[in-house]
Amino acid sequence: MAPRRAAACLLPLLVAAAASAGLGGYFGTKSRYEEVNPHLAEDPLSLGPVAAGARLPAACAPLQLRALLRHGTRYPTAGQIRRLAELHGRLRRRPAAACPAAAALAAWQMWYEESLDGRLAPQGRRDMEHLARRLAARFPALFAARRRLALASSSKHRCLQSGAAFRRGLGPSLSLGGDESEIEVNDALMRFFDHCDKFIALVEENDTAMHQVNAFKEGPEMRKVLEKVASALCLPVEELNADLVQVAFLTCSYELAIKNVTSPWCSLFSEEDAKVLEYLNDLKQYWKRGYGYDINSRSSCILFQDIFQQLDKAVEESRSSKPISSPLIVQVGHAETLQPLLALMGFFKDDEPLRANNYIRQAHRKFRTGQIVPYAANLVFVLYHCDQVKISKEEYQVQMLLNEKLMLFHHSNETISTYADFKDYYKDILQNCHFKEVCELPKVNITAIDEL
Q1: Is 434 a catalytic residue?
Q2: Under a CB-based contact definition with an 8 Å cutoff, are residues 229 and 99 in contact?
Q3: Which EC number(s) does UniProt give (predicted)?
Q4: Residues in contact with 117: Cβ distance below 8 Å, sequence separation at least 6, in sequence order
Q5: Extents of the domains making up the chain
Q6: Rounded distance, CA 287 to CA 293, Å?
Q7: CA distance 214 to 228
Q8: Which residue in 133, 229, 281, 408 has the fewest CB atoms around it within 10 Å?
């Protein structure tokens, strides 16, 4: 009986995997973490294949780990749920006898309630618990008993719950008594964008800043998807718009991520449609959180500088033979926390900006948010102390991992760097990116696009 029960348990996973193979790779920021690490679908605690060149010299020991996490899988926001209810209600009110796709969706149970509003889903808790266990397995010396964990989060409920789930995943192995069991709320670092007046005025609240996104919504690629979905639902194309089609597509993504099922909403889209809708998502992220405008990335310099301040402190403590005061720093934020920081550091930058009119040319772009910031995305900095080195600057070395994969440093094209070289490469940002000055609104009355 046991093998049969095991097979029954695996069946939904196999069904979901089939859906994932078709559309799952195109959900952008609503992508499952398993899309970037497929081996986790079979074993959520697997560390995956060891990358070539990943091994450190034997004489290096980790001193500090700084992990910036995106929260785990979440429910749709209240706004997304309202738009879905509007579309679903429209389908239920129409006679659907001659329209099987519309009939299947009208019969679908609308189970999302506005009160769910972006909260962490049970799968999101599992994302965080499993990530904690994998990081502890990768860096056992840092996660050893009685090591201090500094845990911080944005004020959003899904982030606080993700932080609590991460801590639970570590079990009783760490000393988390007293004040250390508290999760510090730190929106200044995790939601820096909320505190940057220039970003808010010139990007967040400026309709013209998203003109490339709006142009793509009205462009030929989206028009083709709109016509196809309208035809499948037996609706006049005038009754649909890009936002409603995107809601249908994202419902497919939510059902896969939250419930591990293939939703009937997925049947509306081919892989080619999914690529177009992924580009729409990526365009928005590019212009609002990525390379589109300098202020997007420069608003993150407060977080970037804090990372280096903590690394500097660990190096100084090590040189003075003092215990490392913060060996483990884990902070939970958002896709909007990680994406600007990675842009500030120059990662995933394409030669040509993402625009409404270059969809075809961007087919092989680096800037694919589903590969960069899926649910539970994580950017990890690890500082090492190395003995038996040839020159003194090799004593302190650093690695970066994105979604548990080693990153290549720009200055060396290697997966490990001396801390001195790493810091030197970014010295201009560290010395000249001052949050208050960067985020101050211009005093003269100039147009937003001129300033951006």
Answers
A1: no
A2: no
A3: 3.1.3.62, 3.1.3.80
A4: 75, 77, 78, 81
A5: 26-32+53-75+118-205+294-442, 79-117+210-292
A6: 6
A7: 20
A8: 408
For the entire predicted model, the pTM comes to 0.92
Per the CB < 8 A criterion, the answer to whether 244 and 235 are in contact is: no
- What is the model's pLDDT at position 24? 94
Which one of the listed residues 39, 71, 211, 434 is annotated catalytic?
Answer: 71
- Residues 223 and 275: their CA atoms lie apart, in Å, by 14
Q: Which residues are registered as beta bridge partners of 67?
A: 330, 380
* Helix ranges (DSSP H) in 193-267: 197-199, 211-217, 220-232, 242-254
What is the distance between the alpha carbons of residues 360 and 369, in angstroms, rounded to a whole number?
17
- Reported as a single tens digit per residue, the pLDDT across 139-167 is 998 988 667 899 999 999 999 999 999 99
Residue 226 has pLDDT above 90, yes or no: yes
Residue 47 near residue 95, CB atoms below 8 Å: no
The b/e string for 183-218 (b: 16+ C-beta within 10 A; e otherwise) is: bebbbebbbbbebbebbbbbbeebeebbebbeebbe
Give the CATH H-level superfamily of domain 26-32+53-75+118-205+294-442.
Answer: Phosphoglycerate mutase-like (3.40.50.1240)
Q: pLDDT of 86-136, one tens digit each?
A: 999 988 887 767 788 899 999 999 999 999 999 999 999 999 999 999 999
Structure letter (DSSP) for residue 265: G
**How many whole angstroms separate alpha carbon 350 and alpha carbon 358?**
12
